[in-house]
Amino acid sequence: MQKKTIKHFTMDDRIRIEALLKEDFSIRYIADRTDKSPSSVSRELKKHTIIHSPKSCDCIFSKDCSNKHVCGASSCNKKCKSCSKAKKYCPDYSQAFCDTRLAHPLKLCNSCHKRPFCHFESAYYSASNAHQQYRDTLVNSRNGFDLTSEQLIQINDIVSPLVRRGQSIYHIVKTNQHSLPVSESSIRRLIQSSELDIRPIDLPEAVKRKPRRKPVTHSLPPISKTGHLYQDFLAFIQSHDLPIVQMDCVEGCKTDSGAVLTLHFIAFHMQLYFALEMHDSASVVAMLDRIEISLGKELFAASFPLILTDNGKEFSDIQGLERSVFGWKRTHIFFCEPNRSDQKAHCETNHKLFRRIVPKGTSIESFMQADMTLVTNHINSYVRKALFGKCPYSLARNILPDDFFIFLGLEQIPSNQVMLAPELLK
Prior knowledge:
Elements: H1 11-22, H2 27-34, H3 38-48, E1 49-52, H4 86-89, H5 99-103, E2 122-125, H6 127-140, H7 149-164, H8 169-175, H9 184-192, H10 230-239, E3 245-250, E4 259-265, E5 270-276, H11 281-295, H12 297-303, E6 306-309, H13 318-322, E7 332-335, H14 345-357, H15 369-380, H16 392-396, H17 402-408
Parallel strand pairs: 3-6, 6-7
Antiparallel strand pairs: 1-2, 3-4, 4-5
């Protein structure tokens, strides 16, 4: 039996494409690594390329331009070349383009190291954004009703007057079978979606109708963690002299869909915080993928060779946590025993500092990764008595390379400017 091919790009495929674009590989090489055709990869890039316009004025005449009040705001004393709005009003505006981007075969800026500081219009491919657009298209294509406008008008002309006369949907469908092109359940969905002139309150006994009981969902069978248990962890560290990183998730209020992923280095008490869009295993795996792409395969493997975490549902995808976006194993995952948070006490204790800035019950929905990086910098610049008057950053910089801090945007805060209060994020 011939194996069914997967035509759609998965999240792993898109992460691999983004990583290979960063290394400036060709479309044919990327297609070979993702088992897709070059034309499919080309269409994926064209469909999901993000165009980013700079905030500053990118006019070719901006260097010698001294115009003011082009937009008509006489109270503004700034030169128009320092304002991004000037391009809308200036008749002499002519957009400047990056020569490096124009000369690139794919016209993308993923491999350009100057992208964070570029003043030209940039174009790049983002795996997370591409997959979100793909999911939105997939969901929206299955929404709505397969009806023409004429059929919808016909249904409305038959059903709405009869409902106002006190007839039930069942009665209407049974007595108008040859005139209605849809079933009873479809008519009810049309009413719930406000596609007709009537509303659910117009239905007979609609207020008395109880919501349908949802079927009891049985919990999924426990995931096999053979080889990843705490006793396996103890045996592993006896034969391998590797640094240990503890991993956990911190939640906000009950209505939040996201969470904060924490990674704690025991050796120097340094803890990193990363904002997750969703509190699930897919988001955790995606975040580790992004960290690995930022640091590179060698630096990630040297920094996170061994991770100990708890039994939360967000860490259930063991294979996804351990596999690398570059195609091999990136780390070893082990789990604490159930209800034994003391087995990763260093990580749990460090959460107390996080709660000074983000108290329990505070919503974290509005926090971006830049906010979490700011929290990371202030907490790890905090001097500890347990470290004999040192802060985690000062110890970590003696062990980890400078690239680790540069790629993750980490920097030490001066001691008198460290803030561990909610005002830090306000």
